[in-house]
Amino acid sequence: MTARLLVLVSGSGTNLQALLDACADPSYGAEVVAVGADRDGIQALTRAEQAGVPTFVHRVDDFPSRAEWDAAVTGEVSSYRPDVVVLAGFMKLLGSSYLPALGARTVNTHPALSPSFPGMHGPRDALEYGVRVTGCTLFVIDDGVDTGPIVDQRAVRVEDDDTVETLHERIKSAERSMLVEAVGRMAREGFRIEGRRVRFGG
Ligand code: GRF
Questions:
Q1: Mutate which of 19, 113, 165, 175 to test ligand 1's pocket (most atoms within 8 Å of Cβ)?
Q2: Domains of the chain
Q3: Fewest Cβ atoms closer than 10 Å to its Cβ: which of 11, 115, 133, 160?
């Protein structure tokens, strides 16, 4: 059976593209059934449209409250009956409607090695701290900021001449291969959460 993936995005969508490319091979075991965003005019939405995938946009500013935005996102995502939801550069925290409904099947990719450097600026914070190794983390979301049970991680060296941009690009390259590999296994094998650990297999 082909697993149904729904991807939420906010930016350039290179992680989304990696998933779309992987899904082109039937043996990957998954298809992207929809792509959602919290803003218009982003390259990620263009990538989805070019792949013929349905898209939707819910902007926080268009709702009377954050809770109503969260409920609208929850309803729309649920309507596609996804097996796995991938937050691929989605720059919003999901809240009290979303988490009980879909949190356990939603993974997020973060450009740092958790539990170090949570939040919006993982590459910058790692560079400023002076670590020699950073990386990326795929985790199942919970109500914290980048704190959920970890599915996989990849290490990336920090080079002497790195800027935030060069470091983030090297991390994103590791992120894409981590994401494609781990989401493929989640799709084909299933997964379960045991405390802090995520196990592949039904
Ligand atoms: C990734 O590094 C993600 O972890 C971070 O933003 C980047 C998104 O890149 N939060 P893209 O939109 O997939 O190209």
A1: 175
A2: 3-108+138-146+175-190 (3.40.50.170)
A3: 160
